[in-house]
Write a structure and sequence with these properties.
Length: 583
Amino acid sequence: MMPFLKQTILCGFLAFVGYTNGHAQQKTYCNPINLDYGYTPIPNFSEWGRHRATADPVIVMYKGDYYLFSTNQWGYWWSSDMLNWNFVSRRFLKPYHKVYDELCAPAVWVMGDTLLVFGSTYTRDFPIWMSTNPKGNEWSEALDSLDIGGWDPAFFLDDDGRLYMYNGSSNVYPLYGVEMNRKTFQPIGTRKEMYFLQSWRYGWQRFGEYMDNTFLDPFIEGAWMTKHNGKYYLQYGAPGTEMSGYADGVVVGDSPLGPFTPQSDPLSFKPGGFARGAGHGATFQDKWNNYWHVSTMNVTVKNTFERRNGIWPAGFDKDGIMYCNTVFGDYPHYLPDGETDHLKSRFTGWMLLNYKKPVQVSSTLGGYAANNAVDESIKTYWSAATANAGEWIQTDLGGLSSVHAVQINYADQDAEFLGKQVGIFHQYKLWYSADGKKWQLLADKSANKKDVPHDYIELEKPVQARFLKLENIHMPTGKFAISGFRVFGKGNGALPHPVKEFMVLRTEKDKRSALVKWSPVDNAYAYNIFFGTAPDKLYNCFMVHDANEYYFKAMDKEKAYYFTIQAINENGVSANYKQVKAE
C-alpha cells in the first residue's frame, strides 16, 4: 500500500467530503462537456494513434428533454438537466454495415410532435428518420431518401409552418437554402445561394492557426437557423475545424432565404484557453427559453478531426445583436436553473488554481512529461508508463486554497478502440491534503461504471487544500494519461493588479489586424482581452497566457473597434482597463 493511502485509513469517515456520487446536486458544468465520446471509426484517421472524436453538435429540446446528436457517434444522447447525458445506441446510415460517416454533421429538428433526423450525404442512402419516442430508441423512416442531398444539412421550421433546408461545406461554394414541402420533403423551387465568406473584409474568416495561411481558402460549413423577434439569424462555421479560431458567424435577414447582412464579429469564438475553438454548432433554448450555443472544440493532435463539444450561454441584446458568451468558456459555469439574462455571466468565479504549478507523478512514459497536465493545453498531456491501478499524479497549488471543483481530462495514449464503445468506464480516487502528508478522500469513483473522459466534480462544500492527488484504478483502454488535471476554486491571496498600460496598434496596410500590447502584471497568470464594434457590445474575448502581446487578426476592416483587458490569477480578476478605441 502506498504511504499516502495508509494515512487515509484513520480518516475514512471524511470520505466523499463535499462530493455527491452521480452529481445529483451539481449545479455547474465545465467544457469540454463530459460525454462518452466514441473513438474515431475510420482507421486511416488514426495515423498518430487511435483516439476519441466528434464534432458538429446539435441540441434540440423535445418533450422536456435535451437531445444531442453529433458526428459519427453511432447513436445520440438525451438529458433532463444538460449535465448528465444518457447514450442511446443507434445506426442511422444505410447500408448499416458501414463503419464510418455514420450520421456525419446531422440535421435535427422538431415538427409537431415528432423529432426528425437527417445526415450529411450526396447519395440516396440516408433516410429522414422520425420518432415520437427517441428516449426509447423507436424510429421509423419519414422518407426513404432525399432527392437533394448535401453535406452539413440543417432544417428550419418557421412559425408559419413552412420548412426550409440549408446546407454547404466548402471553400469554393457558398451555403445554400431552399424551401421544402413539409409533407413530401421535396424542394419547392431551386436552392439559392445564402452566404459565402468575405475574408478580404472579416479577418476572423481567414484560414490558418494565426489567420495567415495564404495557400488554402477558408471553409464555410455547418448552417443553422434561429428566428428571434421576426429576424432570421443564419449561422455558419468558419474558417477551419483544426484552428484555434474556429468559430460560428451569423448573418441576419428579414426572410428565411435572405438577403442577409453579416454581423462583423464571430458569434461563438474561443481562440485561447485549455480547449479552443467554438465552430460548427447550433443554437437552442432551455426549459426557461434561455438561449445556448453548442459547438465544436478542437484537439487535433492525433488527427485533424480529433474534436470535442462545448456549450455556452447565448442570446440577443436589445438591438437584435446575437451573442455567445465564451468568457472563461472552459471554466465552471452554472447550469440553467430559471429565466436569466445571459449578458450577465454564468461563470461561477471559481479560478484555475494550479496553472503550471509543481507536479509529481508515479511514472512517466517517454516525453509525455508531468507538467503537460497543468499547462492549460488539451493538446499536450502526461502519460504514466502503464494503465495499472496505483499510477498517480499529484498537483501542488502552492498554498492553501478553497477548492470548489475538479476537472479530470483523460488523453488517448495507446488506445485500442475504433468506433463507439459501450460498457467501458474509468475508475479512480481523488485525494486532498493541506501538507502533502495527511491525506483525505475527496471523491471515490472506484465503483464507477461510466465512461467519463472529461469528468467534472463539483464539491457540495469547498475544502481547504494545497495538494490534490489523482489515483488510477481502471482505464477503459490505453495508458493512464491526463491532458488536464484542473483544480478550480479561490486562492487565499490578493486579486491581480490592474493592467497599467494597454495599447492596440492597428495597421493601415491591413485593418483586419492589430498588435495588442500591455504591461505585464506580476501576480497574474493570464489576461482576458475583450473586443467589439461598439463600446457597449464587447461580446467577444480571447484569453492569453504567459505573454503581454497578441497579434489580433479578427477585425472587420471597415469598422472601428473597442478593447479592454483584465488580469487573471488564482484569486480572481482585476478591474478592467479603460476602453481603447482602434480606428
